[in-house]
Design goal:
By secondary structure, the protein is an alpha+beta fold. The chain has helices at residues 2-28, 34-41; strands at 49-52, 58-64, 72-77, 83-89, 96-101, 107-113, 120-125, 130-136, 149-154, 162-170, 189-196, 202-203. It is built from two helices and twelve strands, in the order ααββββββββββββ.
Length: 209
């Protein structure tokens, strides 16, 4: 009796194992393995990815900015669906930047790398004009040899009119107006400090003149 029971149990166990193997093999045909999944889903391409809240409103997106600049950035939106902060690269220069805006949409704080030199520039602004600049000061004609650094405070009534500043940069040198131009050593670095009153009068320490 015991022998028959053990024999029956053995047969049932073997049948269950056989069925499990057949089902597993059949199911594996429809489930891709790691190599197939990696080849099929390793790259996802899209023009925009959105992060939405519980009401399905976009709160952030990764894609092209909608402010007309068409920069590529990770952008965070405010309650009015306006761009409030962004981290990305400029469309025209491909240099990175970090940007924060006020509720009215104007820039308030930015960090960027200057064109060509790739040196950091920090700008602080109110709702109307830029007020403070810190870091590298690009020239009108950017060059890798530019080396001006400082801190400037701007007049709120006149864009980019410096009221106070300090920093460092290369000394200005007079170049001959005709060729051949002499080969000069790199210019010496020089510190500066300056203050301007409301009438436009400037104060500069005597040894800086």
């Amino acid at each position: 009796m015991v022998f028959r029971f053990m024999k029956t149990q053995f047969v049932l166990t073997a049948l269950v194992a056989l069925l499990a193997g057949l089902i597993g093999g059949w199911a594996s045909r429809f489930l891709p393995g790691p190599a197939v999944a990696e080849g099929r889903y390793g790259t996802v391409r899209a023009q925009r990815f959105e992060l939405i809240d519980e009401s399905k409103k976009p709160r952030a997106f990764l894609g092209t900015t909608t402010d007309g600049m068409k920069n590529t950035a990770l952008v965070f939106l405010d309650s009015q669906q306006k761009e409030h902060a962004a981290f990305g690269v400029w469309a025209n220069t491909a240099t990175p930047y970090l940007l924060m805006k006020g509720q009215e949409g104007s820039e308030r704080f930015s960090v960027r790398l200057a064109y060509r030199t790739e040196r950091p520039v920090i700008m602080l602004r109110d709702e109307k004009e830029y007020r403070v600049q810190l870091g590298f000061f690009p020239t009108d004609y950017p060059s890798p040899s530019d080396n001006g650094w400082g801190l400037s405070f701007y007049d709120s009534n006149s864009p980019y009119r410096t009221l106070a500043g300090l920093g460092m940069g290369p000394e200005l040198r007079k170049m001959p107006l005709s060729e051949p131009y002499p080969k000069l050593p790199p210019p010496k670095m020089r510190g500066y400090v300056a203050v301007r009153d409301g009438s436009g009068n400037e104060w500069v320490p005597e040894h800086y003149r």
